[in-house]
């Protein structure tokens, strides 16, 4: 197969992975694309393994469209719940966060090496202690806003990964644009059986952005 054909198949795979309305032909297209990609690197037995896995994943998604959408909606709603209640302010929305978390929800942070150097984000937290953590941070910010860039849902595992952009503006002198830092976060969520409540959340932080935000906060407190 030509390089152009491989590129077209890879593009199709990515487009179909983002689709919220899977069709019966998705399985055939995905299997063909995965076969083409993997054959470049490995043997037929591994290709067959990838094909079977692709079939399982997309068959699961097609057979549980309601659960897929519920998990996706819950994941998106959590990021939305971390936005200020009023745009342009630093008011948090703890009730919205509580509504999305199971009673025994556990929340923590990553990456492990960065977290080991940052005591404020160490340990496992209940929903309330997570809200308290936010409450300790947000008064130091003028405001912030979020954008959900992408969501990947695993129906079988009842989990979702969210890539979210947080534009965070510490209080201080100078223009808001100069003080705004893009903190790109990844959330890994595990949901309950219905997909409507979060039972586990790990938030992966951009350490460079976190250090920049910390430096701006220290400057305004000096």
Explained architecture:
- Helix content is 50%, strand content 24%.
- The protein has helices at residues 3-18, 25-39, 44-63, 65-81, 94-100, 112-116, 127-137, 176-179, 207-221, and strands at residues 101-110, 141-154, 159-170, 181-191, 198-204.
- The chain has a five-stranded mixed sheet.
- Helix 1 (3-18) packs across helix 2 (25-39), helix 2 packs antiparallel against helix 3 (44-63) and helix 4 runs antiparallel to helix 5 (94-100).
- The radius of gyration is 21 Å and the shape is globular.
- The N and C termini lie far apart (63 Å).
Key words describing this protein structure:
222 residues; alpha+beta; Nuclear Transport Factor 2, Chain: A; 5 strands; 50% helix; 24% strand; globular
List the topology elements.
Layout: H1 3-18, H2 25-39, H3 44-63, H4 65-81, H5 94-100, E1 101-110, H6 112-116, H7 127-137, E2 141-154, E3 159-170, H8 176-179, E4 181-191, E5 198-204, H9 207-221
Parallel strand pairs: 1-5
Antiparallel strand pairs: 2-3, 3-4, 4-5
Provide a concise account of the structure shown.
The protein is of the alpha+beta class and 222 residues long.
Low-confidence stretches: none
CATH level 1 name of the largest domain: Alpha Beta
Enter the CATH topology name of the largest domain. Answer: Nuclear Transport Factor 2, Chain: A
- How much of the residues is beta strand, in percent? 15-25%
The structure class reads: alpha+beta
Tally of DSSP β-strands: 5
Q: Please state the second-level CATH architecture of the largest domain.
A: Roll
Indicate the percent of residues in helices. 40-55%
Largest sheet: 5 strands, mixed
Q: What's the pLDDT, averaged over the residues? A: 85
